[in-house]
From TrEMBL:
It comes from the Archaea. SUPFAM superfamilies: Nucleotidyltransferase. This is DUF6036 family nucleotidyltransferase. Gene3D superfamilies: 3.30.460.40. It holds the Pfam family DUF6036. Residues 15-173 form the DUF6036 domain.
């Protein structure tokens, strides 16, 4: 993938305009990732290999893919492991090597494209049938924090220099917990923030909040590892296994119960087998 062509602002704008010129029904899309970083003012990237678009309407997705097909973009099958992990709904590429990665609602099987993300996006292109927004730097930072790709830590460092509003990111963390039905994704954010500190020497105001999520999740996870779906266990037995108090088991159980991961029966506590909607690479 390292030998692939890279494309700058002028080329990306021209391709988006070509899509707009060919559409005959409404499509609303949002640019994320390197493409958005290139097109924002100030621009944070000179070029990008891929144009990452997210749409939130199934019919709009079909219309967009139809136009890209008409413009000579073909489905890519030789993506490699890194791109396979991204979980794009469609990956298409033209003869020049420009690739569109198109997502529907959830990006890379990780974060959902929330109403707040839509509202924070900056208008970029507004044609009769095609509108494109640029996702905010705050939301790009969060996407980069869960993508688990080598280059993303450097992009996170660049984004920090734009005076990010970390209160916005923290609020979006809370929203993603609701949408995903759990806090597993925050463990990946925590690891990315650790690498940001180790590799770039950057700590953020987000660190403390993410650490709280991380510790709460890991305590619940430790309890869950002792649970079984078929055989409930008593609170006292679980307390003995983990060398903690009955009260601590109850606290951790309440955490798991709120997301539907554990339930109480007449015989004790059991695992439900449920997982949230976040998929790790």
């Amino acid at each position: 993938m390292s030998s692939r062509e890279r494309f700058g602002r002028d080329y990306i704008e021209a391709e988006l305009q070509r899509i707009a010129d060919h559409l005959q029904t409404d499509v609303e899309a949002y640019l994320i990732g390197g493409g958005a970083m290139s097109l924002h003012e100030p621009s944070l990237k000179d070029t990008t290999k891929d144009i990452d678009l997210v749409v939130v309407d199934e019919a709009a997705l079909s219309r967009l893919m139809g136009v890209l097909n008409d413009l000579g973009y073909e489905e890519v099958t030789d993506l490699g492991d890194e791109y396979d992990r991204l979980g794009a709904r469609h990956c298409v590429r033209n003869d020049a090597g420009c690739q569109f990665d198109v997502f529907y609602r959830q990006i890379a099987d990780k974060l959902f494209f929330s109403d707040g993300m839509q509202a924070r996006s900056e208008p970029f292109l507004s044609e009769e049938y095609f509108s494109v927004g640029l996702v905010s730097f705050e939301d790009i930072f969060l996407f980069k924090a869960v993508a688990e790709r080598t280059d993303d830590i450097g992009d996170m460092a660049t984004l920090v220099q734009t005076n990010l509003d970390f209160d916005v990111i923290e609020s979006e963390l809370e929203r993603q917990v609701e949408l995903l039905g759990g806090e597993f994704f925050v463990t990946v954010v925590s690891e990315s923030l650790e690498r940001l500190d180790e590799n770039e020497g950057i700590q953020t105001p987000l660190d403390d909040a993410v650490q709280e999520y991380y510790l709460r999740y890991m305590e619940g996870y430790e309890l869950r590892m002792q649970l079984e779906e078929d055989t409930p266990k008593s609170v006292s037995a679980l307390a003995t296994e983990l060398s903690v108090s009955d009260e601590e088991i109850e606290r951790r159980f309440e955490y798991l119960e709120q997301y539907g991961f554990a339930e109480r029966t007449s015989e004790g506590i059991r695992d439900t087998g449920r997982n949230d909607a976040f998929t790790r690479s």
